[in-house]
TrEMBL record, chains A, B:
Native organism: Limnoglobus roseus
Protein name: CE1 family carbohydrate esterase
One Pfam short name: Esterase
GO BP terms, alphabetized: carbohydrate metabolic process
Domain Glycoside hydrolase family 13 N-terminal stretches: 33-91
Gene Ontology MF: a single term: hydrolase activity, hydrolyzing O-glycosyl compounds
Compositional bias per record (Polar residues), positions renumbered to this chain: 20-30
InterPro entries: AB_hydrolase_fold, Esterase-like, Glyco_hydro_13_N, Ig-like_fold, Ig_E-set, Mycobacterial_A85_antigen
Stretches for region Disordered: 17-36
């Protein structure tokens, strides 16, 4: 019996018994007490149904059909956390038809299964004070003419109470084919920050999460360039006008995962006049890193004076690991201070939640001193 | 060429050309200039694929397969606005596999196609100042022990600027199998309010949108009763502590659609000590309305003095129309002041956006006078 504070945005799925509801579709996913999970889909006419999973390197599992036409597979035990999956029904990749927890994407969609832990995880809302996640509408001037984009902003607990306090800002970017909602809906960045702040392991900060696909996903053009312009010209001025943000580079961090890690490195290291903390999780790394940032690499004293934190993390089983490892070597060779944080793990929110919990306490430790 | 401010949370789908992207799946939906819409899904092995649509009374359309295994159908022209649809692939109801605009539900999910209008619609973000939508985490004491629920709260433009101003509050409820996100993600309640406020047709107000399935969707128990307790004991105190809300019944409205309309009527009319404005769109209406609210019906002078607005709206082609019509007759027979607003339309967000635009200007006109 769990007595922890559990966020039940969609209590139906979490609490549903393993029975066939009115619409004749089975319960899916069903998480068992041993953290094994059963996935089911009713597709009586299908000839082949598989499960695509983000929690294993070769993420395709065969499913088997019962007499009622319900395909199922039981996997795990899974690690506590959020896992993402799809079904492939006779060649059509679809989210779980009955699971309301949907992973929104820039194109397509998937399903989420949340495997409970023991309640002590940072991403668990627990009983600590909660900040808010705010949907802010940012009109673009030049980067995306005529467009208004939704940006998610986390304000920490107590933001309303002390009207004199100014907060440092973490700009936090999602990966390819994700959305501005990813870091909160799946990453639970807000609860991770709530817990770290309650434990006094991180300073209260505002976290800004824009939509990283400035240009249409999968289309032509230099997305990072347009995204940088939108960030610098539209998002940052709106944030600094709307929220009580502490001014100056020492109060700004820029961190991202995968594609967003590449954006954080590219934009952050190009603008040490604006940012003093840079982080990249499981990151895309510019192929021309050494030439693009030659001036920074060749001036370790100057760079280290400006760059308070440079955090590189990646799972050892992630296809992106070699590039992170190479970046670590390049930085080391040039005596650039940084933290390389390799862990067990793949390219998924299991490690990204962990990395946010690791880097957030490192941010803004000197600010205001 | 559209020059209006368009919210592109997910620009990929909106801007994608009608071509086959890398993953070999077709573009869907494709909205044509004449507001006809083509839906496509690649399912070469399927024997029957249909489109389920919320914009027509008999909402199932046959789709036809081409040589590449892509099923398609072109419908419309559709009215400007948001329409919701699913595919049924050999008996499996799924959202559109490639459309990132997902209608989140309490169970299952669907897809959204947004058909542009001429830009003058209230739900269009346009170039007016925008309020924010905030995700507030509300722990429950007695109604839902141990649970914390996400509640969406709209704060109007300028909320941060005048620290002395206190705002009236509209509690706005979604329908069955919807979520706390429905009224903003699909209903665009925030933009409707932004526009009405900019046009000085509505007073600036805070809008509170909780998750109406207090108990698991489809499960046993008296959901309205538990939801009422959660609303009164947990949501309202949190809102009044967190936001600068004007006190007293004259500054509170309670409005909902479908199941949420039933909740607004049941809770609102039972608590005229707390609410002075009640609205029900395309509403579920308690079967025992006349006996449950006998005291109110039998005291029109007293009831009319307390009830500043009682707004009942429904589409004439909606299966729920007869019940709204009957409620109108009952109220008229008992001389209870109210507005009955029948329109053309079905049970969908096309009418609900319209009804919010109609009722919001009626709210809080006397407050503070």
């Amino acid at each position: 019996m769990r007595t922890l504070g559990i966020v039940c945005l969609l209590a139906a799925a979490a609490a549903a018994p393993a029975q066939t509801p009115k619409n004749n579709s089975p319960t899916s996913p069903e998480t068992h007490p041993d953290r094994k999970v059963t996935f089911r889909v009713r597709a009586p006419k299908a000839t082949e149904v598989t499960l695509t999973a983000d929690w294993q390197a070769n993420g395709v599992q065969t499913m088997t059909k019962d007499d009622a036409g319900v395909w199922s597979v039981t996997v795990g035990p899974l690690e506590p956390g959020a896992a993402i999956y799809n079904f492939n029904i006779d060649g059509v990749a679809v989210p779980d038809p009955v699971n309301p927890r949907i992973k929104l994407r820039a194109r397509t969609s998937a399903s989420i299964v949340e495997v409970p832990g023991d309640g002590t995880e940072l991403w668990n809302p627990g009983t600590v004070p909660h900040g808010r996640v705010e949907l802010v509408y940012v009109p673009s001037k030049a980067a995306l003419p005529g467009q208004t984009r939704e940006v998610r902003v986390y304000t920490p607990p107590g933001y309303d109470k002390d009207a004199a306090h100014k907060y440092p800002v973490l700009y936090l970017f999602h990966g390819s084919n994700d959305t501005a909602a990813g870091w909160t809906d799946v990453g639970r960045a807000n609860f991770i920050l709530d817990n770290l702040i309650a434990q006094k392991k991180a300073v209260p900060m505002v976290v800004v999460m824009p939509f990283g696909h400035a240009l249409p996903f999968g289309g032509p053009g230099d997305n990072t360039k347009v995204f940088e312009q939108f960030l610098l010209d539209d998002v940052m001025p709106t944030v600094e006008k709307t929220y009580r943000t502490a001014p100056g580079r020492e109060n700004r961090a820029i961190v991202g995962l995968s594609m967003g890690g590449g954006q954080a490195l590219t934009i952050g290291l190009s603008h040490l006049d604006l940012f003093s903390h840079v982080g990249a999780f499981s990151s895309a790394i510019p192929g021309d890193f050494s030439t693009r940032f030659k001036a920074l690499l060749d001036d370790p004293v100057g760079t280290n004076a400006k760059l308070k934190v440079l955090f590189i993390a990646c799972g050892k089983q992630d296809g992106a690991f070699a590039r992170s490892q190479q970046l670590d070597k390049t930085l080391t060779a040039h005596k650039i201070d940084h933290t390389f944080y390799p862990t067990e793990g793949l390219h998924n929110f299991a490690v990204w939640r962990q990395y946010l919990g690791q880097v957030a306490p490192m941010l803004f430790r000197d600010a205001g001193k």
